[in-house]
Here is the input.
Amino acid sequence: MNKFSSFFSEKFDNLKSVITARQEHDAENSDRHGYRLLIEHLELKNGGRIVIFSVVTFILGLLEILLGGHQVIGVTGAVILVIGSAILCWLCAKTILDNTTDTRLMKLFINVYWIMFAICEIIISVSEQLEGKIPYSFLIFIAAFISVPVVKLYESAFFAAVTLIYLVSYGIGNGMGVMYYIGAVALAVAYVWIAAAVRAYYSSIWLTERQLDLTEERCTQISCQDTLTGLLNKAGLSAKFTELSSSGQKEKICVVLIDIDNFRAYNHLYGYDKSDDCLYKLCNCIKIVAKPYTELISRFGGDKFVLVLENMNAVEAVKIAEQVRQSIETMAQPFGKGIVTVSIGVSGDAELKSKNTYSDLLNEADNQLIIAKKSGRNCIGFGGRPFIRDGRADPSAI
Here is the structure.
């Protein structure tokens, strides 16, 4: 008994979830931007289904004119239906294909179309009854909109209401039995359910794809990001530079390579946790100075950082490097009896032509960094000579 109870409870919960569009409400609460995109997606899908439906009504309207009865009222209804379907089909298709038509106008015309469609279909059906025929065209249109259900609740409810009202009226006029009315109600309810199920299907697929896209994007971000500092890692910088070099922009770039002095000794002296804390603080100093000039800031290794400066000559790059060096020195992170310092290598500037430009400048910056290291550290290497903070060579006087 419990199994049957849980089974029906689960089915009822699924039914309630579909009818109430629970997935959409969950998306609205957890991802507002995603929810807006989902609604746009559903609008597009609904527009596409309406185009298909209007094509069907256009064809059926023509058949009614050519093969239907000779009642003036019926032919008039069919002509209005054909013209309205053609206009709606063109307007929706134009909006979906090029997004140039005002969507608000399209929505207004769709609402007008539903009213026109209901009136015309009732007119055609009444015309057939006046000729003593079964209203077969109404049955064909019922089959059409069940085959291509719209994915908006109020539109599907409108269809269901019109169908139910007409079927009940027809049943009263022709003395139909109880089972006929039960069938009419079942048809209306079934259509609303089908429309809700189709909408839930589109929502589920779109939300699943979005979740996969977000996961892939997050994985790509993680693979290109240093977990400790939040900066680009070596692979991330390489990918960004490939993107930059493939953009075809003709611009000069300069590479700045920053290395923490004696960081291995710092690591041995204080341990990994203190070393990570030190790296994080140095990273903040570098970001504060470099962010106004570039987004291409990378942790290039255990104790190395790289800046890629765009549209900047080497002289300006040396001045920024000196600001970074002074910022870290001012921070005065304790290191034994002294403080943590950095040595910096600055490449010359070169026009960005390919990824090789970056590799060449990085190698040049590394050579300048070696010069800074050999000159006592806590200084900048550039142009084959050190710029040392004691005034022997002042970077601002380049």
Summary: Residues 165 and 172 are 11 Å apart (CA to CA). The chain is about 70% helix and 10% strand. The beta strands are 252-260, 297-299, 304-310, 334-335, 338-339, 342-346, 350-351, 379-382, 385-388.
